Amino acid sequence: MRAVRWHGKKDVRVDNVPDPEIVNPRDAIIKVASTAICGSDLHLYDGMIPSMQAGDILGHEFMGEVVALGRGVTNLKIGDRVVVPFTIACGQCFFCEKTLTSLCDNSNPADNQDLAEASMGHSPSGLFGYSHMLGGYAGGQAEYVRVPFADTGCFKVPAHLTDDQVLFLSDILPTGWMGAENADIESGDTVAVWGAGPVGQFAIRSAFLLGAERVIAIDHRPGRLALAAEAGAETIDFENVDVMAALAETTGGRGPDRCIDAVGMEAHGLAIDNIVDRGKQAVGLGTDRPHVLRQAIVACRKGGTISMPGVYGGLVDKLPMGAFVNKGLTLKTGQTHVHRYMAPLLARIENGEIKPDVIISHRLSLRDAPGAYDNFLNNQDEFTKVVLQP
Amino acid sequence: MADIDGALAPPGTRLSPRKNLKLAERGLSMAAGSLLGVLAARQQGAAGVMLGLAGSLLVARGMSGAAPAKRLLGQRPDEAEVAKAAGWKSAAVASRSVTINAPRAVVWRRFRDLRSWPDWAVNIEAIGPSANGSRLRFTTQDPSGPVQWTGGVTEERPEELLAISSDEGSAVPVRVRYEFHDAPGGRGTEIHAAVAYEPPGGSLGRYAAKLTQREPGIQLRRDLKRFKSLIETGEIAVNDPQGTEPKA
């Protein structure tokens, strides 16, 4: 089969590889119908995530048709059309029983858990196509993919909804939603969202649905800010406006009640702290550029909440912890517990409250993946979201 | 965590005392350091600086009585005790615990079924009765390849404790001990495990085994996770085949 494989920094290729097979009783093989490139795939593309190996198959946003099932899967049948959460979850450990599925104890293979434990103390769940520290599983930017624990990991979707409408249930829609939910939004709140990429777009829309009165989107890509404005957000272009001053003034000096960091470890912009972080990354002295997190802590209103759906990979420094403590802030984060949001968000798609396909800018063939990665990274204003079809 | 010989000890891997040098070792260290210092004073340039640095480190080692490298690589006091009790030249002890989301009776029943250990213990190929039926015969993977040895259950209290030891003179000198407790708050069962073994080649052999990932401490950590996964989910997560080999 054809699959998109990581060969090194800024080097992805479409290669011919063996088809996946059923290995464990609860496995399924999915024939991929649609798959997408995620913003977090760009962290891999940039070589920012440790424990990638040349030849790893990428992709954690995918959907398709069940073509093979292990003998342990009884709730699916061949031919089912399913969306698959990017977090792999067993459904039976302590964390899965609490619906904290991105913290599953069992889906990251024991040998791979060692890598995660060495840096994090404990291992989170395995993910599709996202480094060996996080499972070492082959991803879904391929013609076929093996889904472990398929009985909890395959979510059936109704035929009357198109791929474009349901594909993003696999990651970015629930990620944006959980980003807004983690912000503890109360009725009448003003919410600032850093990053108007796909996750930011869904966080903006989710924030309104969760009761925010105003949402302010912060980015530097005019196209992305325009998309945010379509959802009803006010916008700040950080290239032209002093973000801190603008946030303070527009909120009557209070600061936004809730701040959402939908950017993560590779912040853009020419702020002094970000330039220093970029230098440290370049020479291997630092891993993450937490410019947005620093800004959010200082901008947030006293007693407010910061939610961080953006991905961080390693260590950050120069964090204004004094401000965080003295302003009594709360920080909530985590990889998305996708499984628990699938059904409620599908209902909101069906009743028209959320239209996930508005963020798609390009529909391409899987063969176009290398160019698509390059454009998604370097031509962000035009390439909002790329869907690939094998 | 219970010690390997049954004596209770505080949880976690213990460290050797920071000050781990005997009086004679300290004197020797200081004398050697001073000698290097004298030699350094006669040297010119970088060589002199390096010698001087090495000399002062040795003097500091002797004066403080602390040798961090020896502390890191050498045998710990609890390991020395185990070695003495077992009649081994040296011992390595590793411990680890895991929580399994299942009742103690279920965990015990599955764990006590020694014949099924190869399902989750990667280095164990088979466990069966020995030729005369009175002992257990183990086939395990060593860094050098498969090896057979005999041993037996030395202590057993159902749903509480299982201890297994290799027979004297066995090719693989090893003792393991597993304790079973209810986790607080109805969170299942904790297994507290310790493994002690006589590392072939002493400390150096232990680090060589770690490089090949066949070191018992590493295996204990991974095997407990595999056992947990098997009990909780009915299978053990694997990422093979990754599909990284290009199709011919």
What is the class of the largest domain in chain B in the CATH system? Alpha Beta
Number of distinct helices of chain B: 7
Structure class of chain A = alpha/beta
Shape of chain A: globular
Helix content range of the residues of chain B, please? 25-40%
| Extended strand count of chain B | 7
Largest sheet of chain A: 7 strands, mixed
CATH architecture of the largest domain in chain A, by name, is: Alpha-Beta Complex
Largest sheet of chain B: 7 strands, antiparallel
- Bulk shape of chain B: elongated
CATH architecture of the largest domain in chain B: 2-Layer Sandwich
Determine the CATH topology of the largest domain in chain A. Answer: Quinone Oxidoreductase, Chain A, domain 1
Strand-and-helix sequence of chain B, N→C?
HHHHEHEEEEEEHH
Order of helices and strands of chain A: EEEHEEEHHEHEHHEHEHEHEHHEHEHEHE
| Integer tally of domains of chain A | 2
Q: How is the quaternary structure best described?
A: heterodimer
Helix and strand arrangement:
The complex is a heterodimer of chains A (390) and B (248).
Chain A: E1 2-8, E2 11-16, E3 28-37, H1 39-45, E4 56-57, E5 61-69, E6 81-84, H2 94-97, H3 110-120, E7 144-147, H4 150-153, E8 155-156, H5 163-166, H6 172-181, E9 190-194, H7 198-209, E10 214-219, H8 222-230, E11 234-237, H9 243-250, E12 258-261, H10 272-282, H11 291-299, E13 305-308, H12 321-326, E14 330-333, H13 338-350, E15 362-365, H14 369-378, E16 386-389
Parallel strand pairs in A: 9-10, 9-12, 10-11, 12-13, 13-14, 15-16
Antiparallel strand pairs in A: 1-2, 1-4, 3-5, 3-7, 3-16, 5-6, 6-8
Helix pairs in contact in A: 6-7, 6-13
Chain B: H1 23-42, H2 45-64, H3 68-73, H4 77-86, E1 92-100, H5 104-112, E2 124-129, E3 136-142, E4 145-157, E5 161-166, E6 174-182, E7 189-197, H6 202-211, H7 216-233
Antiparallel strand pairs in B: 1-7, 2-3, 3-4, 4-5, 5-6, 6-7
Protein name (chain A): Threonine dehydrogenase-like Zn-dependent dehydrogenase
Domain Alcohol dehydrogenase-like C-terminal (chain A): 198-272
Pfam families (chain A): ADH_N (PF08240), ADH_zinc_N (PF00107)
